[in-house]
């Protein structure tokens, strides 16, 4: 698998009789977000919870979600991130609960408290508003992670709200 192959996305819906049908089969391209080649592929997002399954908008296109950090802002986000060999993300925090599922490769998770763990295929990390880095330690292998983000209340520590910090800007067109 090439890290640059588009993700095959299949979206279901209903016909006028109420029967389930495929309404879209769109390959989702990757958008480079860091100079090292690291990419995002936005698969789907919603702008509310519960989601409206009658909404005809394509969840991979704006304005379904917005915000400098690409957080769900009231809904949800599903994206695939491909992290280049020997590359780290910036240290960052999101104001969401994130489910990170390693699909291929290995990636080190480092928390700002100094803890580190190496995660591999099928490992899952539940991020609860923590400040962290994802680091691909391999010299040759890309790491692919699926992230599901759901809106969360801002984290409060000692009476201070912790918000988004140092999140990569991401692709400009989604």
UniProtKB/TrEMBL annotation:
Record Gene3D superfamilies: 2.20.70.150, Jelly Rolls
PANTHER family from the UniProt entry: CUPIN TYPE-2 DOMAIN-CONTAINING PROTEIN (PTHR36156:SF2), SLR2101 PROTEIN (PTHR36156)
Name of the protein in its database record: Related to Cupin domain protein
Chain intervals for the UniProt region annotation (Disordered): 48-73
Superkingdom: Eukaryota
Entries under InterPro entries matching the protein: OryJ/VirC-like (IPR047142), RmlC-like_jellyroll (IPR014710), RmlC_Cupin_sf (IPR011051)
């Amino acid at each position: 698998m090439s890290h640059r192959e588009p993700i095959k996305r299949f979206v279901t819906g209903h016909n006028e009789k109420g029967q389930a049908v495929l309404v879209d089969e769109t390959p989702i391209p990757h958008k480079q977000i860091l100079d090292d080649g690291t990419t995002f592929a936005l698969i789907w997002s919603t702008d509310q919870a519960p989601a409206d399954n009658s909404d005809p908008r394509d969840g991979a296109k704006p304005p379904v979600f917005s915000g400098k950090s690409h957080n769900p802002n009231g809904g949800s986000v599903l994206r695939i991130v491909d992290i280049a060999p020997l590359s780290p993300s910036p240290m960052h925090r999101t104001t969401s609960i994130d489910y990170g599922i390693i699909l291929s490769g290995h990636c080190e998770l480092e928390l700002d408290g100094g803890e580190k763990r190496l995660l591999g295929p099928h490992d899952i990390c539940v991020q609860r508003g923590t400040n962290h880095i994802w680091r691909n330690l391999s010299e040759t292998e890309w790491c692919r992670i699926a992230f599901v983000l759901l809106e969360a209340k801002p984290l409060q520590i000692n009476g201070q709200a912790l918000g988004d910090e140092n999140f990569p800007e991401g692709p400009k067109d989604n």
